[in-house]
Amino acid sequence: MIILGPNRYGKAETRVVRVTRHGDAHHIKDVNVSTSLSGDMAEVHLSGDNSAVLATDTQKNTVHAFAKKHGVGAIEDFALLLARHFVDSQPTVHHARVAIEEYSWERNGDSGHSFVRSGRETRTCVAHYDGSQAWVVSGLTGLVVLNTTNSEFWGYIKDEYTTLPETRDRILATAVDAAWRHAAPDGDAFDKSYENARQALLAAFGGTYSLSLQQTLYAMGSRVLNDCPEICEVRLSLPNRHHFLVDLSPFGLDNEDEVYFAADRPYGLIEGAVLRDDAPAAGPAWE
Ligand SMILES: O=c1[nH]c(=O)c2[nH]c(=O)[nH]c2[nH]1
C-alpha cells in the first residue's frame, strides 16, 4: 500500500526590504522570508481538491502586507506573528514554520538615506507554531573568525594513512554557522538575546586556547548557555578553514609562521550540539 507521508508547502524566499522614515533619517530591514504550512492537506495530494490550501501566492502577499502593517522588528517577532496568523486564521492549517534571514546594512556617510551592505554575518531564525505552542531557533551564518595563534593540534590517531604533522601553533579559522533554541520564546527580547549570543560566540572563539576545533566548538556553545539564560541548546557547524604554511625553501627563504596558503577545499567540518541537561523537549524546533 502507498500512503502520503509528512508534507508541508509554502513560499520560499520572499525578499522584503522595509523602509522606515523618520524625517530624513531612514532605516532599512532587508529580509528573506520562507513560510511553510501543514495541516489538512491529504486531499490536495490525493485528489487535487484544493479547498484546504492557502495558496503560496497568498502567503507571499501576507508577508508583504504584514511588513507594511506591523513593520519588521526583530526577525523572530515577525516570524512568530506570521506563523500565528496562518494557523489562527485558517482552520485547515495546523502548523506553520516561518524561517527568516536578515542581511545587514550600514549607513553610508551621514546623509540618513544612503546604505552599504555590511560584511557582517547573516542573522537567521526559524519559528514554529502549532496553534498552542511556539518554538523559536535563532542563529547566524557566515561569522568569519580567525586566530593567528593559541591553536594546537596533536595527539591524534596515527595509522598507515596519516601524514598530517602535529602542530603546537597554527592558524585557527572558521565561518561560524550557529543556531540556538529559546527555552520559552514568549516574551524573549530577541534583539538583545541575539547580540548577547553573538558576543558570547566571539568571546569564546577569541579567548579559548584551542587544542582542537572540537574543543573550541564546545567552549563556544557553553559560553552562549552561560551568558544567555533564555537559551537551552546551541548547534554549531564549523568548517575548519585550513591555513597551510607555504614552503619557501625553494626560494632560499625561511617561513617563520608568516606566509600561509588559505585552502578553500576540502575542509574539515566540525559539528555539534551543546545543551542544558534539563532543556525542554525540542519538538519541531530544528525542522
Ligand atoms: O581541530 C581539528 N580537529 C580535527 O579533527 C582535525 N583533523 C585535522 O586533520 N585537522 C584537525 N583540526
From TrEMBL:
Pathway membership, UniProt: Purine metabolism; urate degradation; (S)-allantoin from urate: step 1/3
InterPro entries: Uricase (IPR002042)
Reactions catalysed: urate + O2 + H2O = 5-hydroxyisourate + H2O2
Physiological role: Catalyzes the oxidation of uric acid to 5-hydroxyisourate, which is further processed to form (S)-allantoin.
Binding site for O2: T56, N240
Binding-site residues, 5-hydroxyisourate: T56, D57, F153, R170, Q214, N240
NCBIfam families: urate_oxi
Similarity field: Belongs to the uricase family.
GO biological process: purine nucleobase metabolic process; urate catabolic process
Residues reported to bind urate: T56, D57, F153, R170, Q214, N240
Keywords: Oxidoreductase, Purine metabolism
Enzyme class: oxidoreductase
Active site: K11 (charge relay system), T56 (charge relay system), H242 (charge relay system)
Pfam family, one: Uricase
Record protein name field: Uricase
Gene3D superfamilies: Urate Oxidase (3.10.270.10)
Enzyme Commission code(s) on record: 1.7.3.3
Molecular functions per Gene Ontology: urate oxidase activity
